Amino acid sequence: TSFGFKEVCEEDKSELVGKVFTNVASNYDLMNDIMSGGLHRLWKDRLVSQLSPFPGMKHLDVAGGTGDVAFRILERIKSVQRRALQDYLDENIGETQIFVCDINPNMLNVGKKRAQERGHAEDKSLVWVEGDAEALSFEDNSMDAYTIAFGIRNVTHIEKTLAEAYRVLRRGGRFLCLELSRVDIPIFKDLYDYYSFSVIPAVGELVAGDRESYQYLVESARRFPSQERFAAMIADAGFQKVEYENLVGGVVAIHSALKV
Ligand code: SAM
């Protein structure tokens, strides 16, 4: 391909990822629905229900892109936090803060626009931050929880990203990662391979006029470590209670861990 996905070396990866997400930003939500048959919504719901967000929390969603995970967290907190209680909680527990950090300003801009559409424009709880998962601008031990959804396979150094997640979390803070993973079920694996390598790039071309970016997305998923290997990397970063849950036979997995 003209981006040279297969040959890409480390130094070029961030530039390549920048190009890909600049290209896909405007079609991102539509393509997510098409490629996953709408399932990405359920997977993100599952991630947020595993997180159990609470009023007053300081949350960091890295590679937060168009705000999908952050909106779910915010809406869940608001649904448990009755209006009458809101001022009391803000005063006594502190304001909820959900930081959406993404390296790509185009993705963040789509997110900010969606925040307006969803009625969160005036909400001080959402904070949009342009930044790199590998070098976060947040202080040590400052976050109650950290999520990264469909983001970690795009970073250049997974270890640095995990070390940064560990650094910014407070003791007792939770790490949750939703990512495309490995399917090992015979036949289903073959179907999934066909779908990934043939159907997705073709749909990318048809809907978004961009085969290459979607080809990259598929290939980056295949290069990502297996569930077990990734769990070992999370433990190596210092986390405890590392667990994972496969969804749809491992098409995606949710890894979770605790900083103790
Ligand atoms: N979390 C969103 C979701 O689940 O819909 C967006 C996922 S999107 C597939 C991947 C995002 O990772 C893009 O918005 C991209 O800009 C961002 N990204 C890639 N490399 C990054 C890095 N080093 N630091 C922060 N964000 C990064």
From TrEMBL:
GO terms for molecular function: 2-methoxy-6-polyprenyl-1,4-benzoquinol methyltransferase activity. The keyword Transferase applies. This is 2-methoxy-6-polyprenyl-1,4-benzoquinol methylase, mitochondrial. The keyword Oxidoreductase does not apply. It is a peripheral membrane protein. It is found in: Mitochondrion inner membrane. Keywords: Membrane, Methyltransferase, Mitochondrion, Mitochondrion inner membrane, S-adenosyl-L-methionine, Transferase, Ubiquinone biosynthesis.
